[in-house]
Amino acid sequence: MERSPLRIASLFFAALASFQAQAAVPPAVATIDRSTWPETLSSPALFDVASRAEILMFAHTLLQSEALDDAALADRLDLRTVNMPAIKDLRQQLWQRLWQNYNQAQQSCGQDASFCFAVDSLDDLRTQANNFAVAPDSFYANWGAPARVFDLIYLDELLRKAALSPQISSEVLKVSADEINGSDFNDRVFLLTFDSGPSIAVGSTEWVADFLRTQSINATFFVLGQNFAGRREQGEPGSLEALYKGQCVGIQGWQYRSHADWNDWEGSITRTTTVVENELPDNYVPLFRPPYGTRRADAGVFLGTQQMKVALWDIDSQDSNSQLTAEQSAQRVLTLMLLWRHGVIAFHDTQAKVQTALPWLLTQTAQAGIGWQECRQFQ
């Protein structure tokens, strides 16, 4: 039966609406209930036990993903096409870091042999990852299945970002060698960073900065020029200096929007730099954190003229994601700290969740033998 043009148009728009509705469903975000892990991180050796377990489980998941062809991987990531060279590059980087991290974590095997295997090379790690499983009668049995789910979702987060590059850049792959992400930190050393501040009204950013000072920790706050200028205009002289006392302040641009396709991206950076450096000359650090992690491929040329570097991250709290509670965000961060063993943690000081997540995280790691990077050394 011949269909009328009106009927065809109706079917087309219905299909389009259905596609848009499906596309609007956000991808799952990895989190795990840390209570499934049966031990507290009450010593450096127990931190290493948990770290070895996380590394082996993630390596197992990563290895399995390599069996997928291009079409199967695109289907798994819900993408039409994938950039396989970028995915290959990311996988190589992940394997190298997993091997380095496991090698660090196995140094304490003499104190606790849990998850210790004969691993003397990357090839050995791949072999152990291939055979890795948590037995149903294991002391760690309750952790095994949730950890596998976490790693499947988290790996897809990483692979999806690589698959979309270079059209959409992100934090998982550097655009230039001048960008920094904490990959060269010493083992067990982490840097806290906070994005999108300051809070428009007095409150959340003040809480974070005050809490850090009570813990004798400093961090890097990446501020939005619009918010910063607004707080300067409504506050007393010196109020921003008091707010960020002892902390480092970098920039995110004038507004929280992608600088990859913004015609005024250079002006966004220079305006924000001027207002921050003039107001806080002792706190300012020449670092630019691109909103969403997106930046132009040639951004490094302009940033070089400003004596500025792109500052990325490798542990994302996802605290601005409505899918996660504050507790889930904190547990995600701790799991990634165990996996990556060093790096840059990204929170948002404008999110109320951080007031729950940050104290929990510091309590859980207080005896784990980790250290917090001096923010001035991240440049």
What does this structure look like?
With 379 residues, the protein is α/β, with parallel strands linked by helices. The chain folds into two domains: 35-164, no CATH class; 189-377, Alpha-Beta Barrel (TIM Barrel). Helix content is 47%, strand content 10%. The chain has 13 helices and eight strands. The chain has helices spanning 5-23, 44-65, 70-77, 84-105, 122-131, 141-164, 204-214, 225-234, 239-243, 265-279, 299-305, 326-340, 354-365; strands at 189-197, 220-224, 248-253, 284-288, 309-310, 315-316, 343-348, 371-372. Strands 1, 2, 3, 4, 5, 6, 7 and 8 form an eight-stranded parallel beta sheet that branches. Strand 6, helix 12 and strand 7 (343-348) form a beta-alpha-beta unit. 42% of the residues are buried. Mean pLDDT is 93; it is low at 1-23.
Brief summary:
By secondary structure, this protein is an alpha/beta fold. 47% of the residues lie in helices and 10% in strands.
SSE topology sketch:
Blueprint: H1 5-23, H2 44-65, H3 70-77, H4 84-105, H5 122-131, H6 141-164, E1 189-197, H7 204-214, E2 220-224, H8 225-234, H9 239-243, E3 248-253, H10 265-279, E4 284-288, H11 299-305, E5 309-310, E6 315-316, H12 326-340, E7 343-348, H13 354-365, E8 371-372
Parallel strand pairs: 1-2, 1-7, 1-8, 2-3, 3-4, 4-5, 6-7
Helix pairs in contact: 2-4, 2-5, 2-6, 2-12, 4-6, 8-10, 12-13
